[in-house]
Amino acid sequence: MRAIIKGKWLVLAAWIAIAAVLMATAPNMGELVREKGQLSVPDGYSSSLAAKLIKEANSQENKQNERSAVLVFYQKGGLTADDKKEIERAVNALEKKKEELHVTNIVSPFANRELEKELISKDGTTMLISVSIDPAGRTAKQLTDALYKAVDGVKVEHYFTGGWMIDEDVVTSSQEGVKKTEGITVVFILIVLLAVFRSPVAPLIPLLAVGATYVVSQSVVAFLVDQVNFPLSTFTQTFLVAVLFGIGTDYCILLLSRFKEELAKRGDRVEAIVATYRTAGKTVAASGLAVMIGFAAIGLSTFKLYQSAAAVAVGVAVLLAALMTLVPFFMAVLGEKLFWPVRGKLEHGQSRLWLAAGRFAFARPLLALAIVAVVTVPVLATYDGNLSFDSMEEIGDHYRSVKAFDIIADHFNPGDAMPTQVVLKSKEPLDSEEGLALIEKMSREIEKVDGVASVRSATRPTGEPIQELYVTEQAKQLKDGLGAGKEGIEKIGAGLETASEKLSSSAPQLKQASSGIGQLVSGTERLEDGLRQLQNGLSQIEQGVRRGAVGAGELQNGLVTLRDNAKKLQEGAAQLLDGYKQTEQGLSALSGQYRQIEAGLKAVANQLAAVQAMLAQVEQAHPELAQDAQYQRAKMTVAALSEKTNEMADGLVQLNGALEQARAGLAKANDSFAQLAAGQAAVNGGLDRIIAGLSELEAGLTKAADGQKQAVDQLPQFSRGLEQVNGGQRQLLEHFSALGGQLAQLVNGLDQSASGLHKVADGLGTAETYLADLSSAPEKDMAGWHMPKEARESKDFAQAKDAYMSKDRRIVTFDVILKENPYSTSALS
Known about the structure:
The model has no long low-confidence stretch (mean pLDDT 76). The longest helix has 147 residues, at 629-775. The protein is mainly α. The strands form two sheets. Strands 2-3-1-4 form a four-stranded antiparallel sheet, with helices on both faces. The two termini are 56 Å apart. Helix content is 74%, strand content 5%. Among the domains are: 2-37 and 182-349, Multidrug efflux transporter AcrB transmembrane fold; 413-470 and 785-829, no CATH class; 535-775, Methyl-accepting chemotaxis protein (Helix Hairpins), CATH 1.10.287.950. The chain has helices at 2-6, 8-25, 29-36, 46-59, 81-96, 98-101, 116-119, 140-150, 163-197, 204-228, 236-266, 269-298, 304-307, 310-334, 352-363, 365-382, 392-395, 400-411, 433-447, 471-505, 507-621, 629-775, 780-783, 789-792, 795-804, 825-828; strands at 67-74, 103-107, 126-133, 157-161, 420-425, 452-456, 811-818.
C-alpha cells in the first residue's frame, strides 16, 4: 500500500490512460446488445430444437434470415370504404417497392378474399397485412424505418409489429433504462453519502471510483463479448450499474469511515491509509471476492440471461482494483479535506439509533424476532411465486410494436400477433396421403389443448378445418350422387318396361309392315319399267339439243360476217364525217378571209371617194385644171376605180353569204353523219352481244346435250340399283317374316333387364341409407378424414404446402394461435 501511495500520481495517470483507451477502442455496447444480446434457450430444450428445424427448413429455400412482420391498420369507429381504399394504396406501395425493400411476400385480404375472415376483425375496426422481408444486411431499426417510410402518408392509423421488432424495442428500452438507472443511482447515492458524511467532498470519492469502474468494466465486457462471445443480455448494463454502484458505494463508505477513524487516531495520512487497508481493506477484499465468485458461478448456468450476470464478476474485479488503488489516491491527496467542512478533531461518533436497536435486540431477542416476523411474514404470505416472461411489460405501451400487439390482442386472439410454432420432422416426405392425415390429426389434437384458439397447418391453412376433406362430408356428396344414380336407373328400368310393352303391342303392325314390303317390291318392279322408257325419251331429247347447238353455230357465223361489214360501214362513215368536218373548217376559214378582203375593199373605196373629193376641191381652186387633159384622165381613172371597188365589195358580201349558207349546211350534215356513226356503233355493239349470246347458247346446248348423255348413261346403273333395291326388299320381307318370332324373345329380355335394374336401384338405396347415416355421424373426427389425389396435386394446395412444409416436405410447421398473450404465465404453462 505504501508503494501505491508513493506512486499515487502514476496510479491516477494509469487509470486515466486505461479508461481513455478502452472508451476509444471498445465496441459499442448498444450494437452488441442488438446483435448478441437477445435471449435464447440452451440446446436440448424443445424451443431450441424447433428453432433449429425451422432454420433447416428455411435454408432449403435460402430463407434462413427472413423475418416476418404484421402491418396493423386500426380505425376506432370501424374501417370505412375510404379507409380500405387507403389501406389498399398502402399495400400497393409495398408491392411496388418489393425489390427495393427486399420484401419476399405480402398476404392481404385484397389479393386473397378467402382470408378476409382471418385478417379483418369481427368488429370491422382492424385489418392485418402479413409482410415477409429479407434483412439483406440491414439492422432491425433500418428495416423498421424502411417499412414505415414505404407506407408514409397513409391516413389510417397503422403500426408494424413482430417478434424481432419487439426485441429491438426491448433493446432500445433497456438502453434508455440504463441511462435512467445511472441518473437515479447517482442521485440516490449522493443523498445517502451526504447523509452519512455530511460533507460535499466525501460523496464524490465513491462516485468517481465506481464511475471509473463502470466505464472500464463495461469496455472490458464489450471486448469480451465481441471477441469471445461472452454472455450478454439487455440486462447486463443494468446489472453492472446496480451491483457496482451498490456494493461499490458500500465498500467506499466502509473504507472512508475507517479512514476517518484512523486519521483521528494517528494524524498521519499515510499511516491512516495503511491502517485502514490493513483492517477494513481485508474485509472489503474478502467480500468483493465472494461477490465476484458468486457472479462468476452464475455464468455456469445454461440460461443466457443468467449467464450474462457473469459480467458483474468482471465489474467487481475492476471495482476491487479501483478500491485498492484509486481510493487510496484520493485519501492521500485530500486527507482531512475529504470530510470538509468538519473542523477540529475528527471523530467517528456512534449512531444512537443503531445503538438502541442493538441493545433492544440483545435484551429482548424474542420480541425482536416477533417484530421482524410482523414485517416479513405478510410479504412472504402474499408472494405467489408467479413470474412474468412478458418482455413487453418491461418496455411500456408507448412503443409502436407494442401498440400494434395490443390492438391485435384486443380485436383478435392475442396469439394472432405471435403464433406459437410446433415443428415436426419426418424421415419420409409428409405430402403423401398418410403424411397429410398425420398432419390433420396433430392439428386436431393441438387444437384440443386448453388455451388454443386455432391451428394453422398444411391441411387447414386458414385455421379452420376443410369440411370437404371429412369422410362425413364426402359421404354426403356420394350419397347425393348415388341418389341421383338410383333415380336414373329407375327411370331406365321404367323405360325398358315401356319399350317391352310397346314392342308387345307392335306385333300386328309388324304383320302390316310385311304386307307393305310386298307391295313395295311390286312398285319397285314397275319403277324399273318406267326407267327404261325414260332412258329412250332422254336419248331423243339429247339428239334434238345437239341439232339446236349446230344451228346456233351457223347463225353465229352469219352474224359475225354482218358485224364485220357493219364495222367497215362505220369506219367509212367516220372517214366521210372527218372530211366534211375539214371542208366545214375550210369554208369557215375562207369566209373569214373574204370578210377581211371585203373590209379592205371598202376601205379602198372610201379612200378613192376621198381622193375624188380632194380632186374636186383642187379643180375648184384651179379652174385651169378643167382644161388639163392629163388631169381629167386621172380624175376619171380615180372615179372608175372607186366604182369598181364598190362593185367588188358588194360581190364579196354576196359571196360571204353563200359561203355561210354552205358552211351551215355542212354543219347539219356533219351532225347527221355523227348520229349515223353513233347508231352504227350501237348496232355493232348489239351484234357483238348477240354473237356472244349465240356462242354461250351454243356452249350451253352442247353442255346440255353432254349432260343429257351422262344422264342417259347413268340410267342403266340406276336401273341396276333398283334391281338391287328390289332384291334387298325381298330379303327385308323375308327378315320381317322371321322378326315376328324374335320380337317375343326381345320383349322377354327387356322384362328381365328392367327387373335387374330395379334390383340395382334397391342396392343403391341401401348404400344411400348407409351413407346418409355416415354423413350424419355426431363426431366427424371419428368418421374419418381423407384428401383425394386431385386435391393433393392441386395448385391451391401447393401454396399451403409451400407455406407450412420445407422444400423436401420432411419438415412441417403448425402455427398455434393462443387465446391468451403468448408471454403470459398461463400460456407458457
